[in-house]
Amino acid sequence: MTAAPRPLPVPDELSAPYWEAAARHVLSIARCSRCESYVIPPGQACPHCHATDPMFAFEPVSGQGKVRSWTVMRQSFLPGFAEEVPFVLVDVELAEQDELRLIGRLLDGPDAALHVGDRVTVAFEDVAPGVSVPAFVLGSDA
Question: Which structural domains are found in the chain, ordered by start?
């Protein structure tokens, strides 16, 4: 029996630039053109300045950050992840802005020695032809 395929992102008009950059292994985050704050994910309004016409522009960021928290996933709740458990999801605060958080898999594995505040850097999982998902690895150049 073949394992179910891993779910793939379904970009919409607001998120398409993020996924296009990820496919090139570039972490690009929406930035409000009004207040210049980064936003993950972008919505119809900026959560920082409350502009209803934020004209988000996606900008490459360093991909450097620190671990705020994590969890070890020991059960697959979505088809396509059963073969990958256990794995670690990390909540990362990106270096570009306080409280700019992104959740992703830690590619170092479930046995990695992990602590709050550990430095991580973005890496990418190629999950299908032309589709990559941001993830993280321990350590950083910063």
Answer: 12-60 (no CATH), 62-142 (2.40.50)
C-alpha angle 32-67-133 in degrees, rounded to nearest 5: 60
Supply the DSSP symbol for 18. Answer: H
As a whole number of angstroms, the distance between CA 41 and CA 90 comes to: 17
Radius of gyration of the chain from Cα atoms? 16
What predicted TM-score, i.e. pTM, was given to this entire model? 0.91
On whether the CB atoms of residues 39 and 57 are closer than 8 A, the answer is no
- Cis, peptide link before residue 11, omega less than 30° from 0: no
The residues of the chain scoring below 70 in pLDDT are 1-2, 140-142
Give the three-class secondary structure for 96. coil
